[in-house]
Design a protein that fits this description.
The structure is a homodimer.
Chain A (H helix, E strand, L loop, with lengths): L1 E4 L4 H13 L5 E3 L10 H4 L9 E3 L5 E3 L1 H11 L10 H27 L14 H21 L13 H12 L12 H11 L7
Parallel strand pairs in A: 1-2
Antiparallel strand pairs in A: 1-3, 3-4
């Protein structure tokens, strides 16, 4: 098994943090996004959508999409449980993972991709007006997440799950996207600090 | 249990199709998006992100996000299996569901939201240039999905899964988004017709 990775992109980091939480090690193959290696034929043959991360099994089977890869790792290494232990918890982990991904991480990533000069080649056309329109979306999501965290340490409840990983990666990506996390969001800030202090955050 | 629904939005349709495939019936509560009912306090209290569908359990627990709702229904009604029967199949269902959602459905929805006059109030600001930039993204995804379907009847393999539901809803939404499905994509067209002919498609 091997994982196509980039140390400079947020999505592969989600998988690396997940692996660290599981205590699982998989050989990493670095893909040079700056050199557009992910658009070369040998990579496109593995993933025609040309995104990372990509997990390649020993028989050549390919699994793409960060959360699909994490879910597969969870099947192979069930403990610690990160996707939910009961039907309801699994639903709430899925709900919060998706909310944090689509309502927080996506607007932050769109703000980055449509405003940062380094992304001009990868995000073509860049639409600065769309980048700007995503800033209030990201800030609104931060406020909602802050409120949700008022009565619990992690986003789904009392324990760390894969949804928290998405939250950490999203909030860390706010910095390169130049979106300041409002300091009055105390619960969000406490959560962010707690997650960033876990050893897995360095993965 | 009840489901907050709109018959005019694509996401609740994903859940209705899923329920029809399961043979499960849940009372529907229609939310009038045109009247912005999803932005009223009684709805925001249930889902501060103000999106539908929303599943409300008898004890008042709220599950948002179409796929989280479907996953919960799958837990309660495991047959027919729509999320994958083995670790690998579950990973591939997740991969394709996400690809179809993020690389096909999302660009189609963005093209619609940023170009249709009826969406001006809901998608504020509309960015027509961003709407236009999503058309080639949607067409590229259609080509990749067509190629993937060359050797199999459904997107993950020999049988229908929740990923196919996302594909059907995405392709049907291309029409209001005014994105023509290229007629040369024969595998995509065959798949679309097969899915649209299932009784669940009318749900």
């Amino acid at each position: 098994m091997k994982l196509y990775n980039s140390n400079f992109a947020p999505n592969p980091r989600r998988v690396r943090i997940f692996l660290a939480e599981k205590g699982v090690s998989i050989p990493l193959i670095e893909v040079d996004l700056g050199a557009l290696e992910h658009k070369r034929p040998e990579f496109s043959a593995r993933n025609p959508f040309e995104t990372i991360p990509v997990l390649e099994l020993d028989d050549g089977t390919i699994i793409c999409e960060s959360i699909a890869i994490c879910r597969y790792i969870e099947e192979l290494h069930p403990e610690p449980n990160l996707f939910g232990a009961t039907a309801l918890e699994r639903a709430l982990v899925e709900m919060w993972q998706r909310r944090l991904e689509q309502r927080l991480f996506l607007p932050i990533a769109q703000a980055f991709r449509h405003s940062h000069p380094r992304m001009a080649e990868m995000e073509n056309p860049q639409v600065p007006e769309w980048g700007a329109a995503n800033r209030p979306k990201a800030l609104r999501a931060m406020g909602i997440v802050d409120e949700a965290l008022r009565d619990r340490p992690f986003i789904v409840g009392d324990r760390f799950t894969v949804a928290d990983i998405t939250g950490l990666v999203a909030l860390d990506f706010a910095k390169p996207a130049r979106i300041a996390i409002p300091p009055e969001l105390k619960h969000l800030d406490r959560w962010h600090e707690t997650l960033a202090a876990r050893p897995s955050a360095a993965a």
